[in-house]
Amino acid sequence: MTADLPRPAFTEAAPLVSGRPQWRALQRHHDEIGGRHLRELFTTESSRGERYTAEGAGLYLDYSKQRITAETLGLLQDLAVACGLPGRIEAMFRGERINVTEKRAVLHTALRAPADEPIRVGGKDVSPEVHAVLEHMAAFCERVRGGQWTGHGGKPIRNVVNIGIGGSDLGPVMAYEALRHYSRRDLQFRFISNVDGTDFAEAVRDLDAAETLFVICSKTFTTLETLTNAHAARRWCIEALGDEKAVAKHFVAVSTNDQEVVKFGIDTKNMFGFWDWVGGRYSMDSAIGLSTMLAIGPENFRAMLAGFHAMDEHFRNAPLERNLPVLLGLLAVWNNNFLGAETLAVLPYEQYLKRFPAYLQQLTMESNGKHVTLDGRTVDYATSAIYWGEPGTNGQHSFYQLIHQGTRLIPCDFIGFCQPLNPLGQQHDLLMANLFAQSEALAFGKTAEEVHAEGTAAALVPHRTFEGNRPSNTILAEKLTPETLGALVALYEHSVFVQGVIWNIDSFDQWGVELGKALATRTAAELAAKDEPQLSHDSSTNTLIRRYRRLRHSGA
Ligand code: F6P
To answer: 10 Å Cβ neighbour count for 182?
Structure first.
């Protein structure tokens, strides 16, 4: 579909970003201000808390507790301009083939654009197709939710099981959890991703097949884990309902590959399509979000898309210095490449966002875990940080100790909401008090003098001292709604893109997953072989395989 698109000019050899004068200026600047403590920065510039903030698409970003000055921001923006960020943003929105190694456009933004906005890919307006799929999804969801779509025996659907992995699982499960407050409570949702049989067995063990709908999500429809689980589901369903014909009523597919869907036995009228210009980890707002729409209904799904779109517009139009994804991306570059932070903790103070860090791990690390530039040269600078996290306040009683007093620098993104979805006494105030307290403690710490002045025994003073100077962002929104979730996800999607542009890498391919897949296929054949196979791996792998073959049935 995208073969006739011209190769973007930015793929011509560019200097490594570390060789650019703007990068070196940032290094010199770091040498000058790197030692300044946030305590000092806030004292010399007392209005930081108002100044270093930005708003867009219903989200408020406070980045005043980052170890930056106005000069840092200016230099980061100079770097962004030198790397051609404004043009690259436009190239993405215009549908240029910015995924250069796969020669594909990157147009997840088209999934949430209004119907009357033409979006061209290879000369063709894709908007009508996008909206036709949305209509198809909405009609199907209304029938399931309204009880008109019935199972093989005529019972309405009560259970929806999403089978997929990576972007075909993490987005749907994150969105389902995040928007559970808005979901139909008389429908049960389960998510199966792991090829470990336990995932399947536990997900279906208490389900009545006659009331269960499987949504098989796979962009390629060739992914080993998903297809294995889908076939297990097919057998489980046919065995329980005693009829092959039941598949038609209990299975739908979401994919770009109609041939494989048909081969599996699902009629294409029960298939919801998307396109090669939607990356797996950028697909939760495509038909991959079918389970989300089944849970929250078409109207809420559309509200989520509107939130995505509002952030897209903000990203495309806001000036760099007030642009949330640009700021978030540039600050991540500053912390990673100049302050030497290797990880970034994402800390939502919202229980419904409990799977958000896991979702972000694929989005950020599969996108920017790259070691060569667009033209194939090895980088001499760090690329993606390691993203991780847990909802607050649980993390406080687990790993925050290391963030406060360990030897590593771990920048944090705090995420909070002003209005609770489940008001319970003063609990929301308590939750948010913890968020504000943590970012304050991380930034300002507690000096040895302060600890000493509290009457602490001298021997304990070093243990009770908090160095502080730990940078963080705080993202605040009014309330967790479908719109806010869309805006939040789009914020991180675009921030990942900004970082990828600075590092001059392809944020939209994922070749690094291939080697393990190929080796697993070969090893699976060796494990399945009846006779002892001739193994030609290294001595460790050979010995492990032999030991496994010997012991696997011994306890049975
Ligand atoms: O192996 C990685 C990956 O290709 C991800 O990028 C993707 O989200 C996942 O596998 C699932 O792929 P599919 O949707 O084609 O089954």
So the answer is: 21
Q: How far apart are CA 91 and CA 113, in angstroms?
A: 16
Contact 160, 222 (CB under 8 A): no
Alpha helices in 94-189 (DSSP H): 127-145, 170-178
- For a ligand 1 pocket test, name from 220, 276, 282, 515 the mutation site with the most ligand atoms within 8 angstroms of its C-beta: 220
Q: Which of 346, 347, 385, 353 is nearest to 369 (CA)?
A: 385
3-state SS assignment for residue 510: coil
554 confidence band (pLDDT: 50, 70, 90): confident
Q: What element of type H or E holds 476? A: strand 472-479
pLDDT at 5: 54
Q: Could you tell me where the DSSP H helices lie in 445-481? A: 448-453, 461-464
Q: Which residue among 169, 223, 224, 258 is best mutated to probe the pocket of ligand 1, counting the most ligand atoms within 8 A of its Cβ?
A: 223
Ligand 1 contacts CB of residue 510 (under 6 A):
yes
Strand partners, 474: 62, 414
Dump pLDDT digits (tens) for 522-542: 999 999 999 999 999 999 999
Tens digit of each residue's pLDDT (9 = 90 or more) over 216-271:
999 999 999 999 999 999 999 999 999 999 999 999 999 999 999 999 999 999 99
Q: CA–CA separation, 217 vs 290, rounded Å?
A: 9
> Per-residue confidence at 2, pLDDT binned at 50, 70, 90?
very low
Both tokens of 445, joined, read 């710490």
Supply the DSSP string of 193-214, one letter for each residue.
--SSHHHHHHHHTT--GGGEEE
Within 8 A by CB and 6+ apart from 451, the residues are 460, 461, 464, 465
Residue 517 known to be catalytic: yes
Verdict on whether the full-model pTM lies above 0.85: yes
Q: With beta carbons less than 8 A apart as the criterion, state whether 47 and 124 touch.
A: no
Q: Which residue has the tokens 């043009």?
A: 87
Give the tens place of pLDDT for each residue, 75-124.
999 999 999 999 999 999 999 999 999 999 999 999 999 999 999 988 89
Write down the residue that tokens 């429908």 correspond to.
187
* Ligand 1: centre distance to CA 212 (Å): 25
Backbone φ, ψ for residue 242 (5° rounding): 70, 25
For the CA of 168, the closest atom of ligand 1 is 14
